[in-house]
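Q: How would the structure tokens look for this protein?
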Amino acid sequence: FFLKLPSDSFKYLGWCDIEEHDVRGNQLLCPRVREGPSEEELFFRREEHPLKKRKQVTDTEKWEKRLQENWENCAELNLSFQDLGDLYQVENFKRILRRLIRVEKLWLVDNSLTDLSAIRLPRCRELNVNKNHFRSFKQLPKIPQIQHLSLAENNILTLSGISDFRHTPLESLILKRNPCEFQERYRQLVFSSLPNLKMLDGIPKLPEDYSPPEIRFFYKMCTIL
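A: Here is the predicted structure in token form.
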């Protein structure tokens, strides 16, 4: 027999669900946005949903919650380590990402993310998606203003698609511990694809990182008399 702690009734609640406070999303640098388990999962756990006894949420309350979340006005946000184990968690997470229209610095570390290609972050200058499951540059969000991008410890196989960042102000890129790091002439290929890049994997562009001029062979025809 286990006694429930007073905090048990809050374990699945987001900060917006707790009454009598006016904290907004843009005031939190590292909020927990993962939702509680689904009704079906709670049923199999034989647990009662803490919000089950509440009255049905009205459209007005939904709008008030949206205003309180205030994701549209976040300029700097850390949404790392969210434990997105279920599909409904991932979908809710992407719903939040779509609202980050003004975010400039964003951390999404260790969230088991695989594809954010449908997400656009128009003002994002710094993005950290280390320790996820991206396999290609094509699976990253649209980040036209990106300056610093960290992709360490993903599963990016090749440098295919990296040229999509050619027309961005990207200055610093981290690809440590990705399979593409072992590609022959790795640094030269990255810098040739991204002429504006200044630093790769924490190391500034070096003279040997410049692609050597293409070697051409000229053949002369000899006539033997």
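Residues 215-221 have pLDDT under 50 and may be disordered.

The first strand starts at residue 76 and ends at 78.

Upvote if useful.
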